[in-house]
């Protein structure tokens, strides 16, 4: 399945005018507050009526202003996951899950409830009520309720924003499984670069109601002009494989023949992953570094240099592991005499590779 969105709508302070296509998997709407992310999701859901446009999932048209077609929200076959679980407090987890099935058309393909419960790890919660659940548990139940509604499309509007870091780490693997095991498109709103790097099949970067970039996470996160958090969100996304867990608490990764070390992770040996390396955690050397405590050194050549209006620059280094980005000063670029094609070595502190920047590799490829 694929989602096609075309939308124009004028609001105070923003004129929405955009179009994009979203394949199966997770398409992330990525942008600063006020860029139009939630407005788009509400327009797709039917909670807001755009002045012009068209939204369709394959041949299932949700609205088309040219044809005068508008399906009300309850007929759109959507699963909506909000920032908070929004579970019915008087119902048990089992009853909340069943609620989604009550609204599914009789002839619609249905997810196996036992499979969904197993995938989300909520079997032991079925007889509890929401008041007895943690924030992460509530979100897992909310995901299950959305799936069991037999949706043609799943909408997730900043579903991790209300959770602390520990709960986010708990929920992210379930969204990865959802991406890999469910055939319907997922439209996911976030301003977190780490969530984009881990989850996105494709990214739609938004600014002032317009699409400024659309493509793989590795391309979008490398562009400081579209990162919601500005220069601090810029980073590289590398494809790696778990090679070995060492007894000293480190995990060794194979990055296309190069070796990387990071604090031990839960992933098993042989598993394919993708990791995000923030540009601000990389330093550069024009010569092979010696006598450093850093274990990760990727050698290559300068691919490009982008200087901003301030003192900083983003240097892209082409290595066998992939493109690595470094945020350095323009003075350092000059001192090292860096230019496209010149030899360069990217040094990455092991502890700079955080667990939240490590996620399962998309099985269908990027």
UniProtKB/TrEMBL annotation:
Protein name: Molybdenum ABC transporter ATP-binding protein
Domain ABC transporter: 5-233
Domain spans labelled Mop: 291-357
Listed GO MF terms: ATP binding
Keyword Hydrolase: no
Keywords: ATP-binding, Cell inner membrane, Cell membrane, Membrane, Molybdenum, Nucleotide-binding, Translocase, Transport
Keyword S-adenosyl-L-methionine carried by entry: no
């Amino acid at each position: 399945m694929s989602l096609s969105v075309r939308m124009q709508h004028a609001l105070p302070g923003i004129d929405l005018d955009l179009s994009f296509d979203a394949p199966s998997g997770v398409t992330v709407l990525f942008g600063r507050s006020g860029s139009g992310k939630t407005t788009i999701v509400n327009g797709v859901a039917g909670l807001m009526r755009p002045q012009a446009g068209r939204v369709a999932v394959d041949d299932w048209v949700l609205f088309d202003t040219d044809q005068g077609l508008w399906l009300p929200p309850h007929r759109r076959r959507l699963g909506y996951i909000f920032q908070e679980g929004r579970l019915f407090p008087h119902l048990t987890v089992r009853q909340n899950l069943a609620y989604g099935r009550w609204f599914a058309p009789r002839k619609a393909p249905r997810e196996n409830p036992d499979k969904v419960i197993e995938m989300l790890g909520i079997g032991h919660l079925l007889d509890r009520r929401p008041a007895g659940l943690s924030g992460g548990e509530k979100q897992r139940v909310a995901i299950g309720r959305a799936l069991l509604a037999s949706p043609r499309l799943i909408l997730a509007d900043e579903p991790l924003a209300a959770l602390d870091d520990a709960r986010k780490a708990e929920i992210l693997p379930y969204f990865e499984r959802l991406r890999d095991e469910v055939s319907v498109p997922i439209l996911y709103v976030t301003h977190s670069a780490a969530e984009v790097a881990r989850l996105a099949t494709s990214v739609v970067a938004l600014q002032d109601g317009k699409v400024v970039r659309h493509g793989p996470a590795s391309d979008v996160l490398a562009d400081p002009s579209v990162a919601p958090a500005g220069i601090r969100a810029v980073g590289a996304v590398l494809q790696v494989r778990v090679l070995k867990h060492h007894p000293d608490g480190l995990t060794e990764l194979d990055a296309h023949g190069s070796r990387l070390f990071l604090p031990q992770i839960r992933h098993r040996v042989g598993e394919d992953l993708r990791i995000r390396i923030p540009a601000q955690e990389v330093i550069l050397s024009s010569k092979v570094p010696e006598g450093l405590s850093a274990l990760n050194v990727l050698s290559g050549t300068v691919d490009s240099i982008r200087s901003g209006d301030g003192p900083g620059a983003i240097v892209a280094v082409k290595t066998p592991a992939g493109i690595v980005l470094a945020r350095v000063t323009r003075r350092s670029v000059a001192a090292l005499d860096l230019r496209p094609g010149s030899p360069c070595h990217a040094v990455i502190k092991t502890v700079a590779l955080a667990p939240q920047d490590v996620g399962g590799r998309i099985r269908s490829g990027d």
